[in-house]
Specification:
- It comes from Apis cerana (Indian honeybee).
- It is a single chain.
- The chain has about 475 residues and is mainly α.
- The chain has 21 helices and 6 strands.
- The strands form 2 sheets. Strands 1-2-4-3 form a 4-stranded antiparallel sheet.
């Protein structure tokens, strides 16, 4: 029986954790070597003696010698990593897990509290620890504010188990009284450092934070059996590879050129690079910018009209541009295209109960034989629409809308609109807002420039006295402003 148990223990792999923890634990065990490790002894500080502690510069010196490190900065970084993972901790500062290259004192953590030695502690163990501290000396073992909130929350969530938690806490307090004073101080500090790593204060990061998506495979473990691939999987993979062959591949240099061209084109309209005209309303409290750039305006600005010529998407995304484009198509007797496209766009955002009625209404107005606003689409697209009409939904006319938008509006109507007299007149009559000076308000209706102050020095006045008083007045206003 024992042989079978030994064989099972040998078969179970010991690499259920990242390999970095094996390296860190090996380094920490070398540090704890009584002869060649970091010197650990009782340190005297003021009038007290601190047992089982070592100094920060002893640790840094040992790391530099053991790892052949030339600069102490690298050794301090390694020491900080070991401290944040809970292999040792500061003695006098339980809030921050950092190592300094000075005479500050640190203490090694007991191996049973090392990370990945056992399962992650649960809320019940944390509740026992907090309850145990409430039963001890309040001056030495008082709870922090975040620990009091955690204790109250755990008392509510574990209400059915709280009697058992309280009994275990009382039993642990009773057993701790039987220990020696030095051992009690060391064990208490080690337990507090352990929970400082696993339950850090608010705003502090934990190096042992669990990933939201756990890893399914660990090095050294046998891989889980993979599902056999079926014919459907292979057909799907073949279709994916064929689609990949038809995709347009672009070089990185060409992509960078495209990004650069896009940036140069739209930089003029980016308020982070170009100051908006006439002024930034968030800074100057002037609403002229909002009025000139309202969704629907009678006379758009010249800069806004120029943006319509960049692409059809810019024109269609602007309500004023869409209105002007619709008026132009009405003059050209082809406004049914834009009306159909807007109707399909409205259909996509309609209530589900109204979709069947709207589908039939759009079909009768734009696609049925002899419709009042019949659009011109090819037979293949019409056939696809008829198939979709059997089961009406909000995407029934997407193929027809794409045909109208791409072939009729974007490639035919939009270029004619940009070359038309209507667009030229809009560009010529566009508003050109002038940039306004930045002014500062002093709590009244009077506006005064930041540095401009006018001094009216008469011929009979004391120039020096008046200039001095004005400078004092100006200095006082500046101090009041800031």
């Amino acid at each position: 029986m024992e042989a079978s148990n030994n064989q099972q223990q040998k078969k179970e792999p010991s690499v259920h954790r990242p390999c970095a923890f094996d390296k860190m634990e090996g380094l920490v065990r070398e540090m704890q070597d009584p002869e060649n490790g970091v010197p650990v002894r009782s340190q005297k500080q003021f009038l007290t003696s601190i047992p089982s502690a070592f100094m920060g510069y002893d640790l840094i010196e040992w790391l530099m010698e053991r790892l052949s490190i030339e600069e102490s900065v690298e050794a301090v970084h390694i020491a900080n990593q070991l401290c944040q993972y809970g292999y040792f901790f500061p003695v006098n500062d339980s809030k921050t897990l950092t190592v300094r290259d000075d005479s500050s004192l640190y203490r090694f953590q007991t191996p049973c509290y090392w990370p990945w030695q056992h399962k992650i502690p649960d809320n019940m163990e944390y509740a026992i620890y907090l309850a145990k501290r409430t039963l001890r000396n309040k001056q030495r073992h008082a709870l922090e504010d975040y620990e009091i909130e955690a204790l109250n929350s755990l008392r509510r969530n574990l209400q059915n188990k709280w009697d058992m938690i309280q009994l275990q806490a009382e039993e642990q307090v009773r057993l701790s009284k039987e220990r020696k004073k030095g051992d009690k101080i060391v064990s208490d500090s080690q337990e507090r450092a352990f929970w400082r790593v696993y339950r850090p204060p608010p705003g502090c990061l934990s190096s042992l934070e669990v990933t939201p998506v756990p890893t399914r495979f660990h090095p050294g473990l046998s891989r889980p059996p993979s599902r056999k691939r079926t014919i459907t999987d292979l057909q799907r993979e073949v279709a994916l590879l064929k689609n990949s062959l038809t995709r347009t591949r672009i070089k990185v240099s060409a992509a960078i050129e495209n990004f650069n061209s896009y940036f140069e084109t739209y930089m003029e309209y980016d308020p982070m690079f170009v100051q908006p005209q006439p002024s930034n309303p968030w800074i100057t409290d002037d609403q002229t910018f909002w009025q000139l750039n309202s969704p629907l305006v009678e006379i758009p600005t010249e800069k806004r009209v120029k943006r319509w010529a960049l692409s059809m998407e810019e024109l269609m995304s602007d309500p004023t541009g869409l209105q002007e484009f619709t008026q132009y198509l009405r003059k050209e007797y082809s406004h049914e295209n834009i009306r159909f496209w807007l109707a399909v766009k409205d259909l996509r955002h309609s209530f589900q109960a109204k979709i069947p009625d709207k589908v039939n209404e759009i079909f009768r107005e734009f696609l049925a034989p002899g419709a009042p606003c019949e659009i011109n689409i090819d037979g293949k697209t019409m056939e696809k629409v008829h198939q979709e009409m059997k089961n009406p939904n909000r995407f029934t006319f997407d193929s027809a809308a794409e045909h109208v938008y791409t072939l009729l509006l974007k490639k035919d109507c939009y270029p004619r609109f940009i070359r038309s007299d209507q667009y030229r007149n809009l560009l010529a009559s566009g508003v050109q807002p002038s940039q306004k000076k930045m002014v500062f308000f002093r709590g009244t209706s009077e506006k005064e420039s930041f540095f401009d102050f006018d001094f009216d020095l008469g011929p009979n006045s004391d120039n020096e006295h008046v200039a001095t008083s004005c400078c004092n007045r100006r200095r006082g206003r500046r101090e009041w402003r800031w």
